[in-house]
Amino acid sequence: MRTRSATPHARLAAGLALAPAALLAGVALTPAPALAAPTPTPSPGAATVTKAGTSFLSATPVAAGQPVRVGASTGEYLYWSFPAAAGETHEINATVSLAANRSGRSTWAVEVFDGLRRRQACTAGAQTPTADASTSTVAIGCTLRRVRPWAEPWSADPLPGTYYVRLTVVDLPEPDLGLPIDVDLLISTTGDADTSPEDGKLEAPLVPPTNAGTVLDAVPTPAPGGSDDDGWNLDLTGWLPEAGSRWVWTTAGGVLAAVAGVVGFALTRRPGRRVAR
Predict the structure, then answer these.
(1) 236-245 average pLDDT score
(2) What residue stretch is flagged as signal peptide (predicted)?
(3) 90 to 121, 139, 183, 274: CA distances (angstroms)
């Protein structure tokens, strides 16, 4: 029995029928190119900040898009503050240039606090990366949640106000403490500050009061009570304890105990016997 070969028209029709399937298979097998996240860039003309605070009260103010470059020592706590408005999402990116003569691995951390000193969670970024002894730089990042115009008092949602960034090392060998480092930090902002109030609005931003003290230039006058030419105060009333002080009661109790002991000994002492000659 002889089989008939397919005609050229039949082969062409079969090829056209299989072409869409092969094209779909090729598209499915080809991986889509990954889109790299845009690198935050400083704002044009922004002045570089070269300082960092050592506590919440001394945090250095930084604006969004303003670059920061600070030289510090390993183990120091570095603080910066920045304002946040409702509807904004902030991203903190820091690069720490490490010393070459390190003895081991080190773990770094960036933390963000709001105006009530509440620690805010990061939704993305390497918040606590670890650098090997051979690594020259370590990248640290934190993307905050979107700032809300209002929130319930019991929640920890981010609200408008002042935010604080703290950068430090959390784990390292003890010999590496004090080694010099260089920190490059940038805070970027996305979103629209003019958002809907979401059925509520914060009365005032969360900005803690920082009332600095005043320096007294006047020379204090000596207290009344008599003083000689050398400035020594001759009034000795300040050395006497108060009437209700424990020193008064302790002294009085000791005196009464001594008197009671002498009286008791005098009452119980027997007269000595006389020896006849």
Answers:
(1) 59
(2) 1-36
(3) 12, 17, 19, 104
Query: What's the CA gap between 173 and 275, in Å, rounded?
Result: 86
Tally of CB atoms within 10 A around 163? 24
Residues facing 71 on adjacent strands: 182
Rounded to the nearest integer, the mean pLDDT of the chain is: 77
Which among 198, 162, 168 is positioned nearest to 183, based on CA atoms?
Answer: 168
Helix (H) or strand (E) holding 13: helix 8-29
Count the residues in the chain.
277
Residue 81 belongs to a domain with what CATH number? 2.60.120.1310
User: Domain range holding 112?
Assistant: 60-191
Judge whether residue 198 has pLDDT over 70: no
CA angle 189, 191, 195 (to 5 degrees): 130
- The letter for the amino acid at 173 is P
| Structure-derived torsion over alpha carbons of residues 79, 83, 85, 91, reported in degrees to the nearest 10 | -40
Q: For strands 88-97 and 180-191, give the pairing.
A: antiparallel
Nearest alpha-carbon partner for 158 in 200, 195, 119, 193? 119
User: How do residues 147-171 score in pLDDT, each as one tens digit?
Assistant: 988 877 778 888 888 999 999 999 9
Amino acid identity at 38: P
Question: What is the rounded CA–CA span in Å between residue 96 and residue 156?
Answer: 29
Does any domain span residue 235? no
| Residue 220 DSSP class | P
Domain presence at residue 226: no
φ, ψ for residue 164, nearest 5 deg: -120, 135
3-class DSSP state of 264: helix
Alpha carbon distance 105, 259 (integer Å): 71
Give me the sign of the Cα torsion angle 93, 116, 120, 147.
negative
Mean pLDDT over residues 216-230, rounded?
59
